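Feature request, filed as a ticket because there's no other form

It would be nice if the structure record came with a short human-readable summary line next to the tokens. Right now we just get the raw output. Example of a typical job, pasted below so the devs can see what we mean:
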Amino acid sequence: MRQFFSYINHFFSKFSHLTLIMISVFLAIVIGWIRYKTGSEYAFSLFYLFPIIISTWYVGRGVGIAMSIICVATWLTADVSLLHKFSNTAVPFINETFRLIVFLFVTCLVWELKRALGINTALARTDPLTGIANRRAFFEFADIELKKAQRFKNPVSIIYMDIDNFKNINDRFGHHVGDRLLRIVADTIKKNIRSIDMAARFGGDELGVLLPETDDTGIRILANKLREKLLARMRHHGWSTTFSIGAATFQNSGISVYEMLNIADKLMYFAKRNGKNKIVFQVVKKKPGDVRPDIEIVA
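Raw output as currently delivered:
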């Protein structure tokens, strides 16, 4: 059943809003025409839920409300042409009033369901403390970008950082200050990367940034920029924290997301083991073996 709904969602997601509206209006007219041809003895109004749900879910609540009115109008038009078959001329108008109420209720219900689903999806992909992506969302995004990079032969880069002496901040000032520090770090990263990049928190005090279509020159510039910006924010708040950063660029390496993170993680720990507050770079041009980083020591 899940696969069926996934297929339906994928099918309708390919159409533009205008196309979906045109499809919905067409369905409403067809159902009204069927009503006219079959007479007043048969009721097909349940089928109106298809154009109403489609327009509401994929276009918006306002369009869903408009579609509800259009559906009722087409049915009423058919009933007016069959007015002589009703015991009372007011019956079609009373029926359509109640039908409109039901359609509007369904529209609001579908919209609220979509909104709730969107919120739950966002929560499942977002780190609740910092508001940036979590590990799951990062893996999904990175998998897509790596496949695109392999197809179009574009480089992909990653920054993996750890906050040095973060435990000391928690021990000295309390976890509420540590949480504030993490939010500031995440906010600083978000403000200094492109819209096509993704910042994520992997857990604890480890964060990363995936940079599609970014070569080793670009990653060096950004890694140094982020480090300078972050250190400035730390000094502003009087925190003696620094950052150990691993930065890797992958060129036609056919690498997996797990392997990519593993390399970046090793580069970050290489920086930590060599005195912290350093950036370690590596360019990977083939399937990884041992990490042999090119070290850049930042004073």
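Something like this underneath would help us a lot:
The chain has ten helices and six strands.
The chain has two domains: 2-125, 135-296.
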